[in-house]
Design a protein that fits this description.
- By secondary structure, the chain is of the alpha+beta class.
- The chain is built from ten helices and 14 strands.
- The chain has an eight-stranded mixed sheet with strand order 2-3-1-9-10-11-8-12, sandwiched between helices. Strands 4-5-6 form a three-stranded antiparallel sheet, with no helix packed on it.
Amino acid sequence: MPGGGCHAYFSETYFKEAKKEVAELRKISQDMGDSVRVVENKEELANLRIPTAVGAVVQERAAKLSPYKLVSWILEHLIRTSGLNLQTNSPVLSIASEISPKGLTWTLQTSRGLVSASQVLITTNGYTSYLLPQFKDLIVPVRGEMSALRTPLPLMQQPLSHTYVFVGTDGQDRIQDDYLVQRPVLFTGKEGGELMFGGGRSKARYQGVNVDNDDGIDQPTAEYLRKKLPQALDTETVINGLSSKKELVAKKEWTGVMGFSRDAHPWVGAVPDAPGLWLAAAYTGSGMPNAALSSQYAASLILAATKGQDCKLVEHDVVSSANIPSCYTITKDRMERARKLPDIK
């Protein structure tokens, strides 16, 4: 979007860490470093609508889209053009291997019957350990809260020019940040423009960790989101005599289950000691920038395996070309190292 993305920091400690990361980024990639700037000037912070922030990191390039619409379009396109067989309302209940005349196969028990295949890719994210118990302490379900808030009239007349991440609000740690994207205002000027605001996980029961049911909402978190945004973001700029209320009204509130990784990186590749079984999961709340290339990498491994090629060579080529970082690949050694890290919180 035109104004890019803004990470607003409300903690001196986290802002100092962010500035160090920006400096390190500039050493690694001058091009990427040049697209990011650190903001500490109070007047500029006010212009960014974050007057109470300690500082900010602004990136020139950012995008916003509807994940649901994107994924729906991809599925529709594949069904029409590639013969994709999409079985909805058919949860996989268990998975087991067996030796057949064609070699090792995997049989999936679904609510509607059995499916067998020589190659199976698991993309169940927060629910991975249900099918792969060996990942129970490595990929953990975490429930997050989301809201679509009615937009104050000033922000209908002058929509936000940035997407936002709010770090360190109300004492939350860096992995419990809040995030905001404004939907487009429709041409009438009276509809659309909802403020898509999520986060507040520190207010949730168990901080959402190991909560795998998204049938309802967490009331304290929902209340936090309605009240916190006008405090973190200046939504009260008066335009033509109009101002906003202190607490925003929610049009919709809902939850979703994410898959959090114990070492903070996705797990992508072959499941150890299970030939033909593959995994792409644990995006830790950042699926949009990670899922596409991770899935492409997993697909390239599967294609290589079906052709009898060396998957290690494919892995080397993909990592060398920087399509995915090496820390995303699955190894027994990585699993053991991750188990020595603190539990997910």
